[in-house]
TrEMBL record:
Domain named Band: residues: 25-183
Organism this protein belongs to: Demequina activiva
Classification via PANTHER family: STOMATIN-LIKE PROTEIN 2, MITOCHONDRIAL (PTHR43327)
Biological classification of the source: Bacteria, Bacillati, Actinomycetota, Actinomycetes, Micrococcales
Name the UniProt record assigns to this protein: Paraslipin
Signal peptide extent: none
Annotated family: Belongs to the band 7/mec-2 family.
């Protein structure tokens, strides 16, 4: 081949490559959730949305690709002074979304830096009017104020601020120590209060239980006493009815009364022993029952001691031992008298005496 043909072939190849590259650059495929700002001869032409687009080679140019999804930007900690002159470190996180690609490209050079600086100044203005306690407890209020200010300022940039969050608020170390001590003391106080309340409730419940137990025990004792009294009353009535049905005379009653006297006198713990007034009547009944003659008893002198009877009674009232001895002596005398009367009553009766009595 001659040189002319070679040159023509090379030119054709170069032209083909140029045309292919131009066509490739002219065809633009925009992915979803992305826009591209197109300039024609240095001026804004249009914004290409998702899909395939054709550009005029060497005339149209893509200025910037803009992501239309919601984005998250975390800013480094910023030192902020509160109203009580304490320096706190605050980290912020901003959620924003580009709504107008043209404004985001042409209204501000770098909207990320612009939002960061705007956030810092707004935080300092808001925190400067609050003390440390309000700053720690008013996050929602601070977030709302930051979002309002940023949304108003970034609206002309084609950006919508969704949320602004304070990621961390770090007070000074000394303040942290004081806060920890305060919280520990508060927890100890609450624990002591809860413990005291528990002890109080326990004591109240225990007292209520003792009260109910005492009431039930008293009711049980009362019922038992009532039942016992009723049983004793029924027993007395049955005995009384049995006595009346058996037609017991004074002889039997006097003999039974006499048998109980030694049992009463057996108890050594009795310091004072009272002789009932019916004692003489009982002896008379025994003597009359067995036909014994009543022996005259001296009223003024005791045959054994030769002392005045009234003085013995007076000394017995003042001396418990003497009273016990006197009572036992009376019981022994009464028993011996009853024995003698029974012996005499067992002798054969004298018919002449009975006739004389008739």
């Amino acid at each position: 081949m001659d040189p002319v043909q070679i040159a023509i072939a090379v030119a054709a190849i170069v032209l083909a490559i140029f045309v292919i590259s131009a066509i490739a650059r002219a065809i633009q495929i925009v992915p979803q959730a992305e826009t591209r700002v197109v300039e024609r001869l240095g001026r804004y032409s249009r914004t290409m949305q998702a899909g395939m687009h054709l550009l005029v080679p060497f005339i149209d140019k893509v200025r910037q690709k803009v992501d239309m999804r919601e984005q998250v930007v975390s800013f480094p900690p910023q030192s902020v002074i509160t109203s009580d002159n304490l320096v706190v470190e605050i980290d912020t996180v901003i959620y924003f979304q580009v709504t107008d690609a043209r404004a985001a490209v042409y209204e501000i050079a770098n909207y990320i830096v612009g939002m960061q600086q705007l956030t810092v100044t707004t935080i300092r203005n808001v925190i400067g009017t609050m003390d440390l306690e309000q700053t720690l407890t008013s996050r929602d209020q601070i977030n709302g104020q930051l979002r309002t200010v940023l949304d108003e300022a970034t609206g002309k940039w084609g950006i919508r601020v969704g949320r602004v969050e304070l990621k961390a608020i770090d007070p000074p170390v000394s303040v942290k120590d004081s806060m920890e001590k305060q919280m520990r003391a508060e927890r100890d106080r609450r624990a002591a209060i809860l413990t005291a309340e528990g002890v109080k409730q326990s004591q109240i419940l225990e007292a209520e239980g003792q009260k109910q137990s005492a009431i039930l025990k008293a009711e049980g004792d009362a019922q038992a006493a009532i039942l016992t009294a009723e049983g004793e009353a029924r027993a007395i009535l049955q005995v009384f009815d049995a006595i009346h049905e058996g037609d017991a005379d004074s002889k039997l009653l006097a003999y039974q009364y006499l048998q109980m006297l030694p049992e009463i006198a057996k108890n050594e713990s009795n310091k004072v022993w009272f002789v009932p007034t019916e004692f003489t009547g009982a002896l008379k009944s025994i003597s009359a029952a067995f036909g014994a003659e009543e022996a005259p008893e001296p009223l003024e002198r005791d045959p054994e001691r030769g002392t005045d009877r009234k003085s013995r009674i007076t000394s017995a009232l003042t001396d418990p031992a003497e009273a016990l001895r006197l009572a036992k002596q009376e019981v022994e005398d009464a028993t011996s008298d009853a024995t003698d009367a029974g012996t005499r009553s067992g002798r054969p009766r004298d018919p002449n005496a009975e006739k004389g009595q008739n």
